[in-house]
Amino acid sequence: MDFEDTPEEAEYRAHVRALLEEHSAELVHMDTGEEGAAEGPEQELALRRTQRVLAEAGLVGVAWAREHGGRAGTLAQQSIVHQELARARVPGLINHIGLGMCAPTVIAHGTPAQHEKYLQRLLRADDVWCQLFSEPASGSDLAALRTTAVREGDGWVVNGQKVWTTLAHVADFGILLTRTDPAKPKHAGLTMFVVDMHAPGVEVRPLKQMGGQSNFNEVFFTDVHIPDTERLGEPGEGWRVALTTLLNERVAVGGGGTDLGLSVESLARLAAERVPGLSPERQVLARQALGRAAVAALANRYTGYRRYTAISQGGLPGPEASAGKLAGTASAKLIADLGVRLQGDDAVFLSGADDRWQRTMATLPGLAIAGGTDEVLRNIVGERVLGLPPEPREDKHRPFNEKAAAGPGTGRAAEPANTARTDAPGAMA
Amino acid sequence: MNFDLDTDQRDAAAGAKDFFAGQASPADARRALDGSPVAPGRAALAEVGFLGITVPESAGGAGAGVLDLAVVAEQAGAVLAGPSLVTAARAAVLLADHPDLLAALADGSRGFAVLDGPVGGSAPSLDARDADTFLALDGGALVVGEGEVTSGAPIDATRGLGSVRLTSSRVLVEDAGALWARARQVGAVVLAAEDLGAAGRAVQMGVDYAQMRTAFGRKIGSYQAVKHSLVDAWVGVEQLRSLVWWAAWAADAAPGELPLAASAAKAFAAETLERAAETVIQVHGGVGFTWEHDAHLYWRRAKVDRLLLGDEAEHLDAVAALVLDGALTR
Ligand SMILES: Cc1cc2nc3c(=O)[nH]c(=O)nc-3n(C[C@H](O)[C@H](O)[C@H](O)COP(=O)(O)OP(=O)(O)OC[C@H]3O[C@@H](n4cnc5c(N)ncnc54)[C@H](O)[C@@H]3O)c2cc1C
């Protein structure tokens, strides 16, 4: 057990730090806990440029294989880059979904031609990617999705709707999960594609989130043609392909133990400024809350280090990462809550001297939903890690297009029980 | 970076698990409530070498680190063993310059207890009931002496809690404030390690039962109210494990981080064990509320340990003080 950098790691860290200083003027810097949000065309361009500069400096895809445009580095190096980016106040990369979820899926299931065509450009944010999984009637129960792809000539024709698609408004490509065989049980009839977001028939409508930002979208597909060469994996194998995405999602979102939302260090700085000015009674309360938030963040951070050690020793990212997202969400809430309360009178406004806190607060409910809701993650941990008996899943083996017997008085098909995101990690873990 | 136990530590944990499985159990903890001696007891712990893990080899110990002790303490906690390895850990720090006493600690020929609070009447202190040699802080000096123990009806008899009035004492170390503080932090880490073991075992008992018990035609573990509360308790245990290992590592390798890590671990341990113990009772329903069931013994441990060596409020405040002082932002 050792938390210090090895001499090689220390050397690498110094190298990264020097690169970040050298390129500082070309990078976006911001002190928010938000990911590079791409609000407005100017910010989008700046964020794309930031990622390109970092990619050219060799700081994106550090642990990827060289054949995919990476540096064949270690996970330790990857995490050093993350730490140094945070230290230099460079926001999350615009292509975080592409890097965290789409690329691993393309790498695992794509053809050499797809690797060639996409990966290098994805690394440089020449193309930004999105993940087109959720639909109005299938979020947790992802495998109940209804967007169809029908074989036609040398390709497929896609019709349907996706929703909550982060970054679709700026994306160039997406990984798209569709139903290609409705006569099969719901997991068996799915197929994954890479879709060109600029293709005719793709329409993106931004949605406004509760905090006012527009980071996710509805995406409509009307007779969109996708060449068969853009299929990821075999027809009917879409679920297996999606599992790769979902496993990586759990690690990308919170599984690594990094603070989601604003960091505990930002809270520490704020508290050092504000707590001494409070009344003695309020100081006691604020110190308890600060202690609790710091302990939660540290527990999660060190748990991330353990997971990361396990993965770097050859383990697969498993369902344990879901526990990291649960704990990370809880700790992010403790951090933001105290940060907001320390804003004094400003705390009732979404604006103020240091409104990062209020703005972050308004993103956190989404954290407990995106990438698997807290409830679904608890199901995953309960069943896949603790071995508790599964949820009832009445529709798991029934052909998708065969409705369940209507319950008394409902007059419509029974709601499909969840499976999708709940089933996800287990199949590989 | 490498945040995992090494092979020796894994082996030590496995060995400790075997040892404790034959030597202590919740049933012993139940019998202790009726006045039976605490199991495995000082002699057995001395014989297997666990009282001397952090005692230098020159004084008959193993000369190992706090992390090595913590992995053993986890196994002790899992079966509610006593006396606590906290006492051994704390005394080993305090007696660093007193080889004779260290040797008596490691070989069990003396029963030590470390007293918190005034020497004229200490706070209820771990393992005081069966001790013959008391260590205390008296006006800034570390003293050793004999004393008179008073005690109440125990909630958790395995903890051997008693208040002590020193009847004789001699100074071991003048100006022992810093030494005392470090010993208390190491003690907090080892207590958190015992709580980790107890919490992990409690959650496992709940999981086992939820897999087997049926209600309304389904295993109760398939009900989310049951499943999710077990998951929350388990997530707490895994998070606690990280804090315990970090804190124990810090005690050995990064003393500057120990105050923060020890308080974080102790505060989190209090909450985690309490939740695990309450969950295991609830998951068992009526049988979990019986004297014969083991659940309440973990609950008793939780209700007592959360108050020992500083309660949650004290340690959260200590964390806050360090954070405000720049512990995370330097
Ligand atoms: C900020 C944000 C960004 C997102 N980005 C993307 C994206 O880029 N791409 C994408 O494809 N999707 C994205 N999503 C969608 C996200 O994956 C879904 O919202 C999520 O999986 C939940 O699905 P749902 O919204 O349909 O809610 P539902 O599944 O309808 O859930 C409603 C409620 O029911 C509960 N519930 C459902 N099933 C169970 C069960 N089995 N047991 C217990 N409770 C259950 C849920 O926990 C929740 O509380 C994003 C969502 C958010 C909030």
Automatic annotation (TrEMBL), chain A:
What residue stretch is flagged as signal peptide?
Answer: none
According to the UniProt entry, its GO molecular function terms are: flavin adenine dinucleotide binding; oxidoreductase activity, acting on the CH-CH group of donors
- The segment(s) forming the Acyl-CoA dehydrogenase/oxidase N-terminal domain are 6-124
Q: What InterPro entries is this protein classified in?
A: Acyl-CoA_Oxase/DH_mid-dom, Acyl-CoA_Oxase/DH_mid-dom_sf, AcylCo_DH-like_C, AcylCo_DH/oxidase_C, AcylCoA_DH/ox_N, AcylCoA_DH/ox_N_sf, AcylCoA_DH/oxidase_NM_dom_sf, Mycobact_Acyl-CoA_DH
Q: Where is the Acyl-CoA dehydrogenase/oxidase C-terminal domain?
A: 236-386
Gene Ontology cellular component annotations, sorted alphabetically: plasma membrane
Query: Isomerase: is it a keyword of this entry?
Result: no
Give me the ranges of the annotated region Disordered.
387-429
Keyword terms, alphabetized: FAD, Flavoprotein, Oxidoreductase
Provide the transmembrane region boundaries: none
Q: Compositional bias of type Basic and acidic residues: which residue ranges?
A: 391-401
Enumerate the cofactors the protein uses.
FAD
Task: Give residue ranges for domain Acyl-CoA oxidase/dehydrogenase middle.
Answer: 130-224
The record's similarity note reads: Belongs to the acyl-CoA dehydrogenase family.
| Designated name of the protein | Acyl-CoA dehydrogenase
Recorded source organism is Goekera deserti
Give the source lineage, highest ranks first: Bacteria, Bacillati, Actinomycetota, Actinomycetes, Geodermatophilales
UniProtKB/TrEMBL annotation, chain B:
The record places domain Acyl-CoA dehydrogenase/oxidase N-terminal at 8-89
Q: Which Pfam families match?
A: Acyl-CoA_dh_1, Acyl-CoA_dh_N
Q: What is a GO molecular function of this protein?
A: acyl-CoA dehydrogenase activity
- The parts of the chain that form a coiled coil are none
Flavoprotein as a keyword of this entry, yes or no, is yes
Q: Where is the signal peptide?
A: none
| Name used for this protein in its record | Acyl-CoA/acyl-ACP dehydrogenase
Q: Which InterPro entries match?
A: AcylCo_DH-like_C, AcylCo_DH/oxidase_C, AcylCoA_DH/ox_N, AcylCoA_DH/ox_N_sf, AcylCoA_DH/oxidase_NM_dom_sf
The UniProt similarity line reads: Belongs to the acyl-CoA dehydrogenase family.
Q: What is the lineage of its organism?
A: Bacteria, Bacillati, Actinomycetota, Actinomycetes, Geodermatophilales
- What cofactor(s) does the depicted protein rely on? FAD
Organism encoding this protein:
Goekera deserti
Q: Where is the Acyl-CoA dehydrogenase/oxidase C-terminal domain?
A: 186-321
Write out the entry's keywords from A to Z: FAD, Flavoprotein, Oxidoreductase
